Amino acid sequence: MLTAPMAGHAAPQAAAPATAPAASAQQTAIQLLDRLDAGDFAAVEASFTDQMRQEVPADKLREVWQSLPQQLGAATGRGAPQTAEQGGYQVVMVPLMYEGGVILAQTAIDAEGRIAGFLLQPAQPAQAPGQAPPAPPES
């Protein structure tokens, strides 16, 4: 599926001294997803840090975003955003629901409100408290 091609997130630039407030970071991440859904890839790219613009130009972003429904079927909604501070960034995680599965969109936002990283990966199924992780398949 997708992981690295969308990541400036794996190594956002040097850690910023302060972070964007969580509510503002969530708003930025939701706006990013709304713009992606609307096909406004140039506006998304404009909200990136310089490093992200180099790593993920608008045409690459379009290619990856438009491949999701081809791989997973139609989008059916989004889950509630969650925010965590990581390495001087606010990282907003939003589950994206599709007919064929769930993708977790992770957006790293710097202290200036710019997108320093964006990662799409399959969401891990939730486990009940105290439940052991599933055993790997036997070969």
UniProtKB/TrEMBL annotation:
Xref: Gene3D superfamilies: 3.10.450.590
Sequence ranges assigned to domain DUF3887 in this UniProt record: 31-118
Superkingdom of source: Bacteria
The protein's name in its UniProt record: DUF3887 domain-containing protein
